[in-house]
Amino acid sequence: MNAKKYLVGFICIFFVCNFAFAQLDQFGPDDYGKIIGQFIDPATGKPINEVFHVVISETNPENIVYPLMYKIETDENGRFSVEAVARDYYIRFSPTEYESKYACEPYVDYKKRIIAKVISVQKCKVTRVFLKPRYGGRLHFKLVDQDGQLINVPDVFSSKNLFLEVKSEGEFQCPGINIPGDKLFDAETFYGCLLPGKYLAPFSTRAGGIGSETVSGIEVAAGKTTIVPIEFDLTTGISGNVIYNNSTPPTRVWIHARLQASNDSVDVLSKKDGSFRFFNLEEGVYKLDYLTVIDGKEISGEQKGLIIKKNHITHANITLDNEG
């Protein structure tokens, strides 16, 4: 049975790959033109001495599964060239460094109206493109407690577990970023190359023991750095220890806290000393589920009826039942 599945999978991959290559094989040398590009500063009119990522994709692909697309990185002087099949293309780009004063160029807005620059490539001819990126702004994220003080990250995060996004509130679709927790482990991080406008920043901690929230109304201005404090309420939550045979368990324990009224939940791994903490929780009644494996044996259980109140840490120890 497995052999048949592998054979079917291989046949599918074989045909998919051959179809993709056939897309390119149907074009001869005379079907191509050349694109030569240069990035120009919009204020000075002079070439930009930076490296950019450039994506060139056809406007009306005959095959939507395998559209023609060219991904290029410019040289250090912002110049690039590429051989491309003759047709119309969208072109979008982004600086390679977050410290750049230029913004990423978005592709489409939320209503799917195309706003990217269009270029036309003709057979056996050179198309010259001068790209003028707009000036962008930066965000400076800070993880702070309820008093506005920078968080001592190792005291709060038991693992690299905070995920932060940045999305546009306005007309344009943000190029899209995800900042994993390890980038925020010094409690501060920068993100740049954003077009001026309003943004929101949802953050989640699926394995972090901290409730998720969204920071909205973030203003980004050209040439400016906007400070964005992400506040965690460290005074409302659950704290406890995992106990095994009257001692610290030999392995870390997965603990899942669920708000019974809404089913909102968050996870955490106990620390090496058996301690665990949940912060920034909503008020309500919670249930804790826990799971670990010791000496090849799965141990699990639950605690119900944990009442969480504002500005109060509820203590709840977990005793692992060796009899399972």
Entry summary:
The chain has 324 residues and is mainly β. It is built from two helices and 22 strands. The protein has three domains: 109 residues, Immunoglobulins (Immunoglobulin-like, Sandwich); 96 residues, Immunoglobulin-like, CATH 2.60.40; 83 residues, Immunoglobulin-like (Sandwich).
Please give a handful of descriptors for the protein shown:
single chain, 324 residues, mainly beta, Immunoglobulin-like, four-stranded antiparallel sheet, 22 strands, 45% strand, elongated, disordered N terminus
Task: Please give the domain count.
Answer: 3
Tally of extended strands? Answer: 22
Distance between the termini: 37 Å
Structural class: mainly beta
Q: What does the average pLDDT come to? A: 81
Q: Please give the largest β-sheet.
A: 4 strands, antiparallel
**Helix content bin:** under 10%
The ordered string of helix (H) and strand (E) elements is HEEEEEEEEHEEEEEEEEEEEEEE
Given the structure, what is the number of helices? 2
Q: What's the name of the CATH homologous superfamily of the largest domain?
A: Immunoglobulins
Give the percentage of residues in beta strands. 35-45%
Strand order of the largest sheet: 3-2-5-6
Q: What sort of overall outline do the alpha carbons produce when their principal axes are compared?
A: elongated
Low-confidence stretches: 1-22
Return the CATH architecture of the largest domain.
Sandwich
Rounded to an integer in angstroms, the radius of gyration calculated over CA atoms is 26 Å
